[in-house]
Design a protein that fits this description.
The protein is α+β, with helices and mostly antiparallel strands. Helix content is 29%, strand content 39%. A five-stranded mixed sheet has the order 1-2-3-4-5.
Length: 123
C-alpha cells in the first residue's frame, strides 16, 4: 500500500475516533455505490451525518477541504441518496468534512467542518 493510502487510513481512523468521542454513532465506513464512496456515515441527534475525510501532509498547495470539488460533492450526494434508499432511512442528512493536517511539530490536527455543503451544491 502506498504511503498516501496509509496516511488516508490513519486520517479516517482519527476521524472515527474524533466523532465517537463527540457523541456520534458510526454506522458504516467506506460505503460504496457505483464509483462513489462515502468515508463515514454516522448518526447524531437523529441526523444522518455523511462525512468526507480529507488529509494532506502539507497545506502548501491547498487546504484538505478545498479538495472537495463539485464533482466529488455530486458523487457523495449520489451515494448518500442510495444509502437512504437501500437502508430505508428517512433521516435529515448533513454533509460534513473532516480535515486532517499536520502542524509544525508533525502532530495531526483535526478540523471538523459541520454542514460543509448541501445536496444543492451538487447541481
Amino acid at each position: 500500500m502506498a504511503g498516501h493510502n496509509d496516511f488516508g487510513k490513519i486520517a479516517e481512523d482519527l476521524a472515527v475516533d474524533f466523532l465517537s468521542k463527540n457523541g456520534y454513532t458510526i454506522l458504516v465506513r467506506n460505503f460504496r455505490f457505483q464509483k462513489a464512496e462515502i468515508d463515514i456515515i454516522a448518526e447524531k441527534d437523529n441526523l444522518l451525518i455523511v462525512v468526507e475525510v480529507k488529509a494532506r501532509s502539507t497545506d502548501a498547495f491547498m487546504l484538505p477541504q478545498e479538495a472537495v470539488t463539485k464533482t466529488k460533492i455530486k458523487s457523495i450526494v449520489s451515494a448518500a441518496n442510495h444509502y437512504l434508499e437501500e437502508f430505508n432511512r428517512n433521516n435529515e442528512v448533513r454533509f460534513d468534512i473532516i480535515s486532517v493536517l499536520p502542524d509544525d511539530k508533525k502532530k495531526l490536527i483535526i478540523e471538523h467542518i459541520t454542514d460543509a455543503f448541501e445536496a444543492l451544491d451538487a447541481n
